[in-house]
Amino acid sequence: MSTVGNSTNIFWQESPIGKAERQKLLNQRGCVVWITGLSGSGKSTLACSLSRELNNRGKLSYILDGDNLRHGLNKDLGFKAEDRVENIRRVGEVAKLFADAGLICIASLISPYRKDRDACREMMQDSSFIEVYMNMSLQLCEARDPKGLYKLARAGKIKGFTGIDDPYESPLNCEIELKEKEGECPSPVAMAEEVISYLEDKGFLQNE
Amino acid sequence: MEGLAIRASRPSVFYSLPGLGGDSQRRRPSSDGFLKLPAENRKIIANSASFHPISAVNVSAQASLTADFPALSETSLEERRINGKEKAENIVWHESSICRCDRQQLLQQKGCVIWITGLSGSGKSTVACALSKALFERGKLTYTLDGDNVRHGLNRDLTFKTEDRTENIRRIGEVAKLFADVGVICIASLISPYRRDRDACRSLLPEGDFVEVFMDVPLHVCESRDPKGLYKLARAGKIKGFTGIDDPYEAPLNCEVVLKHTGDEDSCSPRQMAENIISYLQNKGYLEG
């Protein structure tokens, strides 16, 4: 009987210090704030603003974004469809570890497919997956075009670019939706405050 | 390569239990965890701690990348011109959230990776538990990455084939690095039998932040413990490629802490071993902000 394969030799390790103890130490509850939206919708800006505001309140957070991870953990992945799925899966698993550590983990990725985002939600227990949808119009995002990628996509130099020739599947039931108000995008601080209000209401900014 | 971590030769701290002993030459801790610029961008220097460059965009592929918001200040543009030419349309600056030092300040500790390596049954998980408990009692935040725990989540797609074992360790190294960047004292507890794989993880981190702890316990002691019954299965030929039986374990040549089994169970307690690691961390400044 060969057991070179998964599972049978793997045992769960119990540790006396668990999530409850860590949350007590940090005076917060670990969770994942998953920011999704088109390129240029302001995900990274919100992530930065949010972590700064949380830090001001003495709360520990950390940003996981596609870029940081693609140069480290996910550097073996390309942009083929299956690699994109795997990219998101791994981010979800790491975010879960961070939440278990008691951190407020801010994941900031386009993550265009509902199935992939929902799979990450499934990894978490006890409603600690907070999906934030940056519902900014394609027009606004393209007008910003901070990395010049829309221009390249329109010129046909990038294929499969979300919003141009690859779909973005908006969330059907996210916790927070941020959108333009009367054609104006709210400030990063205002948007961060909205997320923080939600976290506060749900008890993530204290330990109970 | 990320960052500018340079490996220098490392004197190890050798603990032959009970108590401290052996060569205990100390190193000065590396610089505090300030933002590291990627190596390829090191000529571009942020004029303010609140800005940092995003790595170059690979425009031949779609990027799920950061920096939707350019925030190209006049000063940052000037900096790029100083280098002789506009470095990149590809590099987008945006205001940083908070830096590693902010988190260190909040947590009153410095993030690092405690990499506990050794044979199955050498006591890695036991020491990891004791260490996390002892650090918690001091108000320090730790998180343990255990080979088995991670194989149920992040690494559940991996088997025990050679290349997957390497990948298992690589991924754990990368995640441990992230935890250390948060400011967490990340305890990684896994056999990790090959020097090359452990050294690869070491190279991911800034100098000093990777603390290799070798559980120096003879095979016969580990086998007599056999806490999971794996040695018995391996001896019966029911597991192939089991470390120590029919797969090698390459002991570290130059690790920071050696926990050597002396046979004296009283002075060899997990708590004692944890305290030895804590002494090391304290001396190197990891237990303060």
TrEMBL record, chain A:
Belongs to the APS kinase family. Residues 29-178 form the APS kinase domain. It comes from the Eukaryota. It comes from Capsella rubella. Pathway: Sulfur metabolism; hydrogen sulfide biosynthesis; sulfite from sulfate: step 2/3. GO terms for molecular function: adenylylsulfate kinase activity; ATP binding. Catalyzes the synthesis of activated sulfate. It catalyses: adenosine 5'-phosphosulfate + ATP = 3'-phosphoadenylyl sulfate + ADP + H(+). Its EC number is 2.7.1.25. Keywords: Amino-acid biosynthesis, ATP-binding, Cysteine biosynthesis, Kinase, Nucleotide-binding, Transferase. Pfam families: APS_kinase. One of its GO terms (cellular component) is cytoplasm. This is Adenylyl-sulfate kinase. One of its GO terms (biological process) is cysteine biosynthetic process. CDD domains: APSK.
From TrEMBL, chain B:
SUPFAM superfamilies: P-loop containing nucleoside triphosphate hydrolases. Keywords: ATP-binding, Kinase, Nucleotide-binding, Transferase. InterPro entries: APS, APS_kinase_dom, P-loop_NTPase. GO terms for biological process: hydrogen sulfide biosynthetic process; sulfate assimilation. Pathway: Sulfur metabolism; hydrogen sulfide biosynthesis; sulfite from sulfate: step 2/3. It is an enzyme of class 2 (transferase). Belongs to the APS kinase family. Catalyzes the synthesis of activated sulfate. This is Adenylyl-sulfate kinase. It comes from Capsella rubella.
